[in-house]
Amino acid sequence: MNSKIVILGAGCFGTSTAYHLLQRGFQDVTIIERSDEFPAKDASSNDINRIVRTSYPDPFYAKLAKEAIHSWKEDVDIWGDSYHESGVLVLGASDYAHNAYLNDVQQGLRIEQFEQSSTIRASFPPISLSNDTRGYLNHDGGWVDAGKATLLLTKKVISLGGKLILGKRATKLIRKEGTTQAVGCDDGTIVETSLVVVATGPWTPSIFPELGYNDNSLATGQGLAMVQLSEEEAMLYRDVPVILNFSTGFYCFPPTKDNIVKMAIHAPGFTHTVGNISIPRTVISHPDDGLFIPKTYAQRLRDEFAAVYPELAKKGFSNTRLCWYNDSPDSDWIIGRHPTDPSIMFATGGSGHAFKFLPVIGSIVADAIQGTLDPVLEQKFAFNRKITHVDDSRDGSGLFRKELDVNDLCGPEN
């Protein structure tokens, strides 16, 4: 319990891991964060909203999401009002959606099934869907203010005795006899450690290429856009649920307190390859156009938005962003020790669906650190596991992973 643990990255995995370690009695936990402002403005864990759903075909994630929602709702001393239980309207006739529905029913959640789009429109008049659309409303879900939740949990970590070091980028691992004993930072700072938890999200494949992590995951940029509503407009849409369509990949949120509606497509995304490794291209690395999304993707967003909210789709985008994920081939997380250096623990591979688990995901990492993780999960999340299935949650989008074309970005003039 007195061992020095250094966590690289103050996002979803890193902050939750620090919290659970401190809750278990660990005495020396330090998070090193590359950004000098917090939460980092280009981190995927810093956003106005993230979907909170139990709707997974994999029973493990469905059950874990239910546990997370319990914390989102009950642990108000940590989360305050960051969680909003708007319900999640799950659409689409895919196998993914059907099996997710079966798991939601099996868990005894509050489910309302819609066999026809007319009943959806009757329940939520602002929503406009094609006549062949069907789905179900899971009342036990909604969305969370990701940036706010990350900040609140970090404050809790600090109150428990954890340390947060900002503005230092880890650049090297200092080893002795094959074991990492310190982390070197870009400013020359050396931080000694007994265990390094690499929780650097989409920067993981490029931060220490010598670890061979690039073979295990890929940094992908996911486009999203926002529309600013007036107070009068927002009132008409305030009580709609999160919409998540597994047949198209499109999803959008109810208006935030600032009357912003955000939308995106759950798709394979874009790569930004530098030296054979995909590296996030963000507003920090490219301040002039790091928030821009490809034009063709922007048009697809407009078309999907118009199919749901035709009146709002007439408005221009107020903001866009490429949100960067760290995708594993099977969408299972990567939580486990490096096969040749047990002093390195990975906690990453969020694959675009980790944030909802912020209250509980660190407990899995803590179990892995203490050697008590269920052997089934140990294999499921192993760094060098054999990939036996692929992620099919994004199949409905009809989009394919592409290299980002920086000459075809949608800027303010579009």
From TrEMBL:
Annotated InterPro entries: FAD-dep_OxRdtase, FAD/NAD-bd_sf, MTOX
Protein name: FAD dependent oxidoreductase
Domain FAD dependent oxidoreductase: 4-367
Family: Belongs to the MSOX/MTOX family.
Record GO terms (molecular function): flavin adenine dinucleotide binding; L-pipecolate oxidase activity; proline dehydrogenase activity; sarcosine oxidase activity
Top-level taxonomic group: Eukaryota
Cofactors, names only: FAD
Keywords per UniProt: FAD, Flavoprotein, Oxidoreductase
Record Pfam families: DAO
